[in-house]
Amino acid sequence: MSDENRLDKTNVVDGDTLKVRLDEARNAPPALILLMGPTGVMGKQWPLGKSEIIIGREPTCDIHLDEKSMSKKHAKITIDGEQVNIIDLQSTNGTEVDSNKLVPHIPTLLKNNDTIKLGNVIFKFLSQGQIEAMTHATSYDRGTTDGLTRIFNKAATLAHLEESFKKAKLTDTNLSLIVFDLDHFKKVNDTYGHQGGDYVLREVASVVKNQLIRSGDIFGRYGGEEFVVVLYGSPLRRACDVAERIRSTIEKQQFLFGDKQIPVTVSLGVCCMDATIPTPEVLFAKADQALYKSKGSGRNRVSTL
Known about the structure:
The chain is of the alpha+beta class. The chain has helices at residues 3-11, 15-26, 131-144, 154-171, 185-212, 236-252, 280-296, and strands at 31-36, 45-47, 52-56, 63-64, 75-80, 83-88, 95-97, 100-101, 108-109, 115-118, 121-126, 175-182, 218-223, 226-232, 256-257, 260-261, 266-272, 302-304. The protein is 38% helix and 26% strand. Helix 2 packs across helix 3 and helix 5 packs across helix 6.
């Protein structure tokens, strides 16, 4: 293909597709984009879909960032129709909008592209209906999504686990973790090729995400054939029920690759946070130990420690 033809092809945009994108943009809610703050969430976007949104260091805040320069409850966003205001909640280090320091408890109207500084954290405000909100959301999703399975990647999964752990500790809420992997996955790759293996990984992720967990549960690919489910608010018994449902469903699922049926089973480990678990890393390690207990006991089973 010539460069000219390639350029022409690149620039052609389907009219219906463009119309859909513009309609989606017009319906996009106002949003905040993190320009400066904790490295793991740089570029993250928060749609402002509630009438009141609290921003702060406390994990129970609607927008929570683990940043020492922010107060536990630093500022509040209020939405009334198309008007979006920000209110400083008498924070220690103050709130600025476009370099203007706010008076505590006095609402300030936000305009599109305003920069908001809370301590050392800087957000960009996008008003309702901005196509830029869609662009940023797509870009951030690419950075947090596993390319093959379209679920969270390892970094995003661990970040969500850490945030959920802190919130659960603070609010004395149950938090359980399921770690599972595919049994004898090397044999699947050796027998059906890497395309067959990729097909199985995609299908397992799709079945779990769409059929077996809640929409608010965190589900990610930790690496290779290993997956993680973070169940906020779930005690051990419920987490074991979810794990058993995953195990039995995958065992019964038909994985048809071309004209060949691939037998697939999974081994799972489950752990629930308690007073003896001081960090999310320890929680993960215990769930991983339970997984290896399943694998050492014959695979295709659920284990706890």
